[in-house]
Design goal:
Order of helices and strands: EEEHEHHEHEEHHEHEHHHEHHEE
Shape: elongated
Number of helices: 12
Distance between the termini: 30 Å
Structural class: alpha/beta
CATH topology of the largest domain: Rossmann fold
Helix content: 25-40%
Strand content: 15-25%
CATH superfamily of the largest domain: Phosphoglycerate mutase-like
Length: 363
């Protein structure tokens, strides 16, 4: 297999609204269909859906062994941005364009051509089927993924699941320098905004988001608003999801705190009951996060909730989900803009589905 033609399309009924994409891979003569893709994306914009269609088409072409690809789309924006003639300015588009470019680099040659919608009827039909809510299609490649909301087979308990999609905020200037960042309010950096947009795009693909609950701090709210734009779901804040109060250590590096308060810092690193000067202990954080979890499970029972927060609250929620001791706070690493997923059941069982996923951070 050498040369193929990829045609892709995406749409949104409402912009943003119910969205989906379609993609088809033809042989070089455009006589035989080699692969098809379609997927419902939940709530998203037209441009997000168009890019997702392109990514799916390029992925399908790579899977069947193509080395040269001619892309044909009726989206002028995608064609011009992928050709390098237009700049990518919208934060939601940056990671999508980057992902498509990464896949394109695996081929010997890729070109992009704009075509009228009438000439893109096959991909358009697939996209409309996806927007209508028809099952995702992957032909010519691997089979469609299994549903993710099922109870693990080893759990015999009953009850509907409440899913929490745990999202850490994007990068700030303090996180660049690895400084303690608790109750301060630094804004996201340019990369942090791109990370938030990328995570938001991934969450939109999950679909079925019922609520977004965020820490009130600016870096979390800004990340949550990116998810809101991608899903069309409003953001609610919950004070108990805020980060640890590091007191007088706020804004200092690990080394600076170790030199300033060596004994206290050493105790704090091994004992969750110890407070930083003027701050709060991890035990105190655990109790307010427990209250946040209980509130979310009460208010959104049986639904899917995106929880946008910080390192310590997310680690604490994972601690509850795993039913393990406080050592997880010191042993578990969570990246910026990472996603973890915990399912909670009304019979007090829980299932941790995902931890620290950053595979979508293409920018």
């Amino acid at each position: 297999m050498t040369s193929v033609v990829v045609e892709a399309d995406g749409g949104s009924r409402g912009n943003p609204g119910p969205a989906g994409y379609g993609a088809v891979v033809w042989d070089s003569a455009r006589r035989n269909v080699l692969a098809e893709r379609r997927e419902h994306l939940g709530v998203a914009t037209n441009n997000v859906a168009e890019y997702r269609g392109l990514i799916a088409g390029l992925d399908a072409a790579r899977e069947i062994g193509a080395t040269r690809v001619s892309v044909r789309m009726d989206s002028k924006l995608v064609v011009e941005q992928m050709s390098g003639r237009w700049k990518v300015k919208h934060p939601d588009m940056i990671p999508l364009r980057a992902r498509a470019a990464d896949i394109a680099e695996t081929f010997e040659y890729v070109d992009y051509t704009w075509i009228p919608r009438a000439e893109n009827s096959h991909a358009d039909r697939l996209a409309n089927q996806a927007m209508d809510g028809e099952d995702s299609m992957l032909t010519g490649g691997e089979s469609a993924p299994a549903p993710v909301a099922e109870r693990p087979p080893w759990q015999s308990v009953s009850g509907a699941a409440t899913r929490t999609v745990l999202l850490r905020h994007g990068q700030t200037a303090l996180s660049v320098d690895k400084r303690y960042s608790g109750r301060g309010n630094p804004e996201l950096t340019e990369l942090g905004r791109a990370q938030a947009a990328s995570a938001a795009g991934r969450i939109a693909v999950l679909g079925g988001i019922d609520a977004i609950v965020s820490s009130p701090l600016g870096r979390a709210r800004e990340t949550a608003e990116a998810v809101s734009r991608s899903t069309g779901v409003a953001v609610t804040t919950l004070d108990s999801l805020t980060e640890t109060d590091f007191g007088s250590w706020e804004g200092l590096t690990f080394r600076e705190v170790s030199e300033r308060d060596p004994d206290l810092h050493g105790e704090w690193m091994s004992d969750t009951s110890v407070r930083p000067p003027g701050g709060e202990s991890f035990d105190e954080v655990r109790e307010r996060v427990r209250g946040a979890r209980d509130s979310i499970l009460r208010d959104y029972a049986g639904k899917t909730v995106v929880v946008v927060s910080h390192v310590t609250p997310i680690k604490t929620l994972l601690q509850f989900g795993l039913d393990v001791g406080p050592s997880i706070l010191y042993r578990l690493h969570l990246d910026l803009a990472s996603i973890s997923i915990v399912d909670w059941f009304d019979d007090d069982a829980a299932s941790v589905r995902l931890v620290n996923d950053t595979s979508y951070l293409w920018a």
